[in-house]
Amino acid sequence: MNIPPRKRKKATSTSSDLQPVANPQDFSHQDNQDVVTIDVPAVEVPELTPEEQSDRLHLERKVERAFFEAGKALAELRDRRLYRSTHRTFEEYCKDRFGYNRSRSYQLIDAAIVVDNLTECPQIVDILPTAEGQIRPLTKLEPQQQQEVWQQAVEEAGSKVPTGKIVKDVVQRIMERTQVPNTYQLGEVCQILAKDNPELRGKGGCWAIVTQVNDFSCTVRTWDGELTVGLKHLKSYEYLAEDCQQMQEICNRISRVYSGGLEESVQKFLESLGKLKRAYLTGLEEKVLRVLESETSR
């Protein structure tokens, strides 16, 4: 008996299966409904109590005076030689114990001396330095000048603690105004003082011959070149005219050998001659220089 094939049922959808096409305006309306406004209550920051205010001021003062306290301590360690049980010199002690080189140690010591001086001036006792660099330009001035410069720098900073640049600018203007006339003469032999001038690094202690006299500086010639140096970084040897002439000849001879491009050891020897504190060469120095001259002339 043949069974007739079943008819395939048509797919039907219930109302739950069908979703109406959404109107774009409906989405916009829905998005607006999703925007929620949250009210955040303001958090009231309580004021410092009188005790907290006192603690804050005390701690701020400790931070501000940190460099001052360090300088005072270093000065006492140096003056009482409290390093002597472990180190031969104060400089070695500071390097090993604190990581300070000689320059940094004495910067802090000098700064502490300046602060002590500033605190003696009633007009500026309320605005004192907070960092060593702010008063570094003052260390070479007289105590009264230090106070005057600091007062002026505070005024220029709007009655606030001035930066080191402001202090340096005030010092420079005062120095230019009170500058002693340049009395150096052409051909005069001077010693270069490189302290506090990084541009003269490596030149400290070298002798130099004045080749040009400027208002506040001199152009000088050393054994290995020429440079311009401020008056405060020069010190005359006060040689007689014949000594100056002899140093000029020595300078010319050293320069010729130096320009010959000999070995580094030779240059070290020439550098030692460039720091002589006398207007002549010893017999041995003269012999060595002649040998080097003969080598460069070949």
UniProtKB/TrEMBL annotation:
Region (Disordered) residue spans: 1-33
Taxonomy, superkingdom: Bacteria
Composition bias type Basic residues, residue spans: 1-11
Name of the protein in its database record: Site-specific DNA-cytosine methylase
Organism field: Tolypothrix tenuis PCC 7101
Taxonomic path: Bacteria, Bacillati, Cyanobacteriota, Cyanophyceae, Nostocales
